[in-house]
Amino acid sequence: MVASIEGLPKGLSFDGTTITGTPVVDDDNWDGDDGMFKTVTMKFKAKKNGKLLVREYKYWIYRDKDHDGIADDDEDGGTAFTPQRVNAKPIDVDGKAPTLEDYKAKFSNIPADGSVKVKLLQKPDLSKKGITKAVLEFSVDGIDKKSKAIVMVNVKTPAADAEETLPEVKVDSKVIETVLDEPGRPKWTQGVPIKPATVTSLDKDAEMVASIEGLPKGLSFDGTTITGTPVVDDDNWDGDGGMFKTVTMKFKAKKNGKLLVREYKYWIYRDKDHDGIADDDEDGGAAFTPQRVNTKPIDVDGTEPTLEDYKAKFSNIPADGSVKVKLLQKPDLSKKGMTKAVLEFSVDGIDKKSKAIVMVNVKTPVASGATSAVTSGTTSTRSAVTAAISGNSSVETRDSGKANKREDIQKPAESKAPAENSAATETERTVS
Predict the structure, then answer these.
(1) Distance spanning both ends of the chain, measured CA to CA
(2) pLDDT bracket for residue 421 (50, 70, 90)
(3) Do residues 199 and 208 make contact, with C-beta atoms less than 8 angstroms apart?
């Protein structure tokens, strides 16, 4: 197997055996079932006896615009966040009021990226022993409808009011510090994993809150370190002629019934040409800038290099297929010696294409027609992937590309169209 897949969605990777990761969709091109899913076409490749075996495979990423980890077509069309409970047990209170994080921990599908906002709409009565209730409200930017959920609270020892009412005290870097203040650190660039960044309290009596208000999507905070890959869904690039986006975060720590808050501004830099380089560090993102692994030529011993061999000479070609690579000029493999190939790189939405030369050292000439692409005539059994949070259910698929739930399949009264590949009619919908 060739250890890369042409057309693999952004956020996924392939190690030659297994596809892993979380699918990310940057555009709004949902082409199926009135915007419920996006069709992706991948090419699985293997090399054999100087030939490239190619199987073209269609798959589907299902939309999750309400960020609840459930494909929108499996619920209400994505009109509101649907909270999923960890369990129905109440929160026990022994003299200390639950924090908002304690309430959120009762649900399994609240994203860590802050895309779903949670508010304590109704506080529980913590002034007396017994069972009481809290009401949470969930909201998502761009979706009008808000959802609610009740969390039961068992007051064993009465407590003062919750964290929500803690008075906030503004502090600076002398109280809450972050390595993001250090000069020379790599900037945060769209779609590029960040260098882990710590946020800590210098006050030994203050406890950091394990969440950051305003933390960009794709990043997470465990109470000490920010990690992840920043994702920008909108097109609101507000700085330097559209070169970066300003984000405002709040680092928080609790001390003696007060909430210490440091407001912090940072920037995510744009990378519209998908080359892993902030656009303002190069040509403004006018074209993909290929980054070489090394300048060594490709050695040829009787077998023609594949496109994957040429692509392997560059370190920054995304695995998600957002950058298309074409062999513009083939090398002369008919005689010994040094020759060259020319690759062309293109990105959807960007007019300018870039080129790069790859040197080829022909040690043993290649016979004419020794290499060709062979495409498998077997199409994929259709199934689906949802860009959201982990969870899965079995489905059967139909020629339309629309997935049916297993419980529907088991109803004898319903007639189902046969799957394309009867040997694998049961597939798995992965909610990532």
Answers:
(1) 25
(2) very low
(3) yes
